[in-house]
Amino acid sequence: MTRFGTLDVSPIWRVNSGQTYSIFAEGVPLSAIELARNPGYPANDINVNTSERLFFGSRGVGNYKGYGLLDLALTYGIPVWKSAKPWVKVEFYNLLNNQKLIAWEAVNDNQFPQPIPGQNGGRLFRMAFGVRF
Predict the structure, then answer these.
(1) What does residue 121 show for φ and ψ, rounded to 5 degrees?
(2) Domains of the chain by residue range
(3) Which of 24, 20, 10 lies closest to 91, judged by CA?
(4) What is the pTM of this model?
């Protein structure tokens, strides 16, 4: 520690792998063949109103791309008296402003997948003050 204080620099590269997704239709009514195979047990409760999730292909067939974000934290502490040291810390999340689209919300009315609303990413800045003694 010098008389002018100390500066701590903490960069971090956050790398997140891509997520898998499945292509399916929700609420598909059972076919006549599936209804005919019902053995009639009370635990099954299969009837005309029963629906299922129909997968197109195997589960986890698609992959979203992975992405990386650069974060940076700077902490500056000034020695004032004995061990008392006020400090200020600034943190920058997503410093390089990576705006890569990483997830989609599929719609079931035959439209192309749309971005998930509210997930706009962007940068974040935080500042904190304190005293160590």
Answers:
(1) 65, -130
(2) 1-19+64-133, 21-62
(3) 10
(4) 0.56
